[in-house]
Amino acid sequence: MLVKYxxxxxxxxxxxxxxxxxxxxxxxGPYRERDDAVQAWRRLASATRHDCLARxxxxxxxxxx
Length: 65
What we know:
Blueprint: E1 2-12, E2 20-31, H1 34-47, E3 54-63
Antiparallel strand pairs: 1-2, 1-3
């Protein structure tokens, strides 16, 4: 199995984080190692810490061959 990691998120319409603002969705990656994705997520989260409507998560994609 091949595992890829992605950072997904962006700016949301409210602090319930249930709807992204149009055009503000972000996807970064893929990262082959989870540690690399975590480091990138930390940098992104730190850069947007002043924005209470920004939220990012790490998603895992498993590719079965």
